[in-house]
Amino acid sequence: MVSSLLALPSTFSRLNLVQKSSIFIPFTFKALSLLKFHKQPRLRPFNYPLLHFPSSLNSPEAHFSTSRRPVSSKSFDVDLVVLGIETSCDDTAAAIVRGNGEILSQVVSSQADLLARYGGVAPKMAEEAHSQVIDQVVQDALDKASLTERELSAVAVTIGPGLSLCLRVGVQKARRVAGSFNLPIISVHHMEAHALVARLIEKELQFPFLALLISGGHNLLVLAHDLGHYTQLGTTIDDAIGEAFDKTAKWLGLDMRKSGGPAVEQLAQEGDAESVRFSIPMKQHKDCNFSYAGLKTQVKLAIASRNIDAKVPLSCASSLDRSSRADIAASFQRVAVLHLEERCERAVEWALKIEPSIKHLVVSGGVASNQYVRARLDQVVQKYSLQLVCPPPNLCTDNGVMIAWTGIENFRVGRYDPPPPANDPDDFMYDLRPRWPLGEEYAEGRSEARSLRRARVHPSLSSLVQASLQQQ
Ligand code: KG4
Ligand code: ZN
Fold this sequence. Notes:
It is found in: Mitochondrion. By secondary structure, the chain is of the alpha/beta class. It contains 15 helices and 11 strands. Among the domains are: 81-203 and 395-432, Nucleotidyltransferase, domain 5 (2-Layer Sandwich); 209-358, Nucleotidyltransferase, domain 5 (2-Layer Sandwich), CATH 3.30.420. Bound molecules: 5'-O-[(R)-(carboxyoxy)(hydroxy)phosphoryl]adenosine and zinc ion (ZN).
């Protein structure tokens, strides 16, 4: 056993290309448990299990290969307890999850009121709102789980993509908790978390799989080869589908307090989806990229031509006005989703060529809570005998569970940072990644229609993880 432990690779920072062993004291699982135990006696000591690696530990791929679940003994899974913190956009969320996927608590403080008032996320106001509630949200998560910080094994936190000002609030809190209680910290990619939470609810979901991630700020089709290894098949060239739902709701005068998407979905049920002939975006581009800016304009024009006044709330609209709004909602939703369907079909074909063993399409992110989206995409995957995996709605929209779970997946394979100091200096430079791709672009899928803003984009998560693996 001792020799196996000595043979373990030192942990490396999940994201920075620096092997921590070269800077810090070698930090094996064993060292970690001793360190924690020495400084901070725990009520129930967490036993870090032996990692089982293939015999040839010198080959790079022997380390941290994650296609199987490498560290997954029952006691490891039950004893591992991770706090996840999410503040990348307008929801302040925290959750505590066990290594076996048991959700011990989940708390979300939404800024929907601010969103309804200002019709969008204002970064400075969102930052202030996060700062006001972050301590309480984390405390509530601990209380609901009947735990104290001392009983945690690690803290996971979103470091990007998202709004810098907002990300900073979560990262500062995570570092304060981790530093004060001597806990390792795991940096999480928000979009990876949207995809991986599907593995918490569907235990059969193995890599590789295809994922469609649809939210307020992102429209991504990614092929998930392995943990930390993604190929981007498509992304949006302008707006994401969630943004189109939100603007449609605003212009139709709908109640935005639960965000625009659910309001449009509900009103669409009353409307005739064939009544307004919106055109499907990017039909002529045979790739997997998305565009919703043009559809937004079409909706705006349709609303103007029917003299709908957004200042008149839906509840006060005449029945003719109401049915006209419902027709627009239904027609918009139909075409917005037709665009998803068309892109997904192509992505499935591409994905099956690259990874013929894929069996699942994961659909996650806030818009994946939409029942119409789910039903239509289910029909797409059935054509290819694949299975659709959609997390439940409260795990599709931003939440702390997905961050904690992604932390767990990475912790299991040794991707975490050692505990930070109890107090960061005032001028500490936080590692925040507001614009951060998940994977490298699929070269054959490049579109001439792309007008993507490329300025100041951080290297992708996948390229960082792959480079780190090669350095092992
Ligand atoms: O993933 P998420 O919670 O936050 C981001 O990372 O953006 O997604 C929020 C987006 C919003 O645009 C919201 O309107 C949309 O998800 N959304 C929906 C539904 N529920 C939330 N869109 C359509 N139908 C829904 N039921
Ligand atoms: Zn999100």
